[in-house]
Amino acid sequence: MRVLVGGLLVASAPVLAREPGSNEVTDEARRAEIDALRARLEALEKRQARDHEELEEVRAVMAPIAPQLVPPGPATAPVDTARAVAVPVPGAKATDVQVEWGAGAPIFRSGDGVFSFKPRGRILLDVSSSGGSAYQARNLTTTGSRALRLGIEGGVGPHLFYQFESDFAENGVDVVTAFLGWRHKVLGLDYDIRIGNLFNDRGLEGSTGSDSTPFAERTVVGTAIIPQRGFYGIGAQGRLFGPNWHASLTLSGDDVDSAYAVNDSRTVLARAHWNPVKTDATVVHVGAWGFDEKLSSAAGTVTRNTVIGGRFNGGLRVSTGALTGATGDTGYGAELGGYWRALWAMAELGRREVRLAGQRDFLSDAWSVSAGGFVTGETPPYNPRFGNFTQPRVSRSILDGGMGAVELTARYERLAFTQESRLGEGWAATVGVNWYLNSFTRLMLNGIHWHTDNRGGDFTGGDDGETVTLRAQVSY
C-alpha cells in the first residue's frame, strides 16, 4: 500500500499547483496536495481492512456449512457442487467465471463464489447372457442400457442448491431426481431440506445410485422391499447429520406422472445409520429404516416380478401371480457391515407387508450377505455421511499411467413371497470383478448362479441356471 502511495506521489508531482506564470510549486500548494494524498491513503487502507473483515466473515460462515471440494474421509463421491462452496476471490466480479475439473465434468462458479453449476451424466451399458434353464425361453442373450442420464446440479450461496436429471434408458424419457434444497446448521448439526422428486433413502443399497452399487443389480432387499410407487416420489425430505450418523424423514406422493384423476398414494419413509467405529482404516455401519404407504385406488394391483439373475432377461424373475385389492403396505429393514482397510462386508434384511382387502396380508421377505476387497489396496467406496456406497478414490488412474483399481466381490441373496401359502421364492449367488479405470469409469463382470421356484406364471416349479453380465459405465 505504501508503494502504491509512493507511486501516487510521483505520478502526481507534475500536476501539483503552481503560481500563475511560474514554474515553481509553492510550499502551500505542495502541503495541500500531500494532505489530499494522505486522505486518499487512509480511505484506501480503511476500505482494505473492511474488505478483509467481510471476507473472513464469509469464510467463517461457509466453512462449517459446506465442506471442501473433496470431502474428507477415506472414500469420496464425485464432487457435489451443491455442497462445495468457493471462497470469493478479492476483486473478482459476479460476472467472472471460474472453471475447474471435477470427476469427469467441469464445475463452473461465478467469480464472487455465489453461484455454482455442474453438468451430470450417467451411461451404463450391459450385455447379459443366461443359460442352463429348463425353459428355453429363459436362455437369452440381450443388450440394454441400465441408465442413460443427463442432468445438472448447482447452488446459490452457501444454503440453496438444486438438481435435475432425466433418464433416457430403453428409449423412453423419465424425470428422475428433480428438487430444490436448503442446507444450514441447527444446534451445531448440519441439516438439509429437499422438495421435489426425491430418491428413496431406504437401506444401504436401496439408497445407493445405480452407478455405485458393487454389483450390476441391487440386492433383493433393495429391489423387493420397496414402496409400490418405486424408487422416487414427489414430496419433502429432511436430513440431519451428526459426526458419525445421519437420520432422514420423507413424506411423498407418487413419482412424476400424469395421473391427475385420482389421489396419489402417500408414503412416509424414515432411515437412520450410525458408525460406532470410524477411523481412517476401519468403519462399522449399523442402520435401520421403515416406510408406511397408503395406496391410491389406482394402485390396487401389487403383483411383483422381481429380478433375481439379471435385469435384462425378462423371464428371469421371482413372481407372485396376480394380487389385487391392496389398500396399503408397510416395509422395514436393517443393515450391518463395515470395512477394514481394503476389505468390506455388508448384510441387509427386510420385510414388506401388503394389506389386501378381505384377504391375508401379502408378505415379501428378503436378505443378503455381500463382501468384497480391492486387490490394488484402495479403501472401499463407503460414504460415512449418507451410509451408502459411492465411487472409489482410485490411487493409480490409467490416465496417470497406472492400472486403475480392481475389486473382487461376492454375494448371496434370498427372496420369498408368501400369502396363505408360498407364492414364489428364489436365491442367487454372485461373484464379480470391478475394474475402475479412474474415479468415474468402470467395467464390471458378474457371474450369477440362480434358482427360482414360482407357483404361477409361465415358468413354474424349480428352475436353475447361470447368467453372465458385462457392464461398461461412465458417471460424472
From TrEMBL:
Pfam families to which the protein is assigned, alphabetical: Porin_O_P (PF07396)
Keywords carried by this UniProt record: Coiled coil
InterPro entries: Porin_dom_sf, Porin_O/P
Coiled-coil segments: 27-61
Name listed for the protein in its UniProt record: Phosphate-specific outer membrane porin OprP
Organism in which the protein naturally occurs: Cystobacter fuscus (strain ATCC 25194 / DSM 2262 / NBRC 100088 / M29)
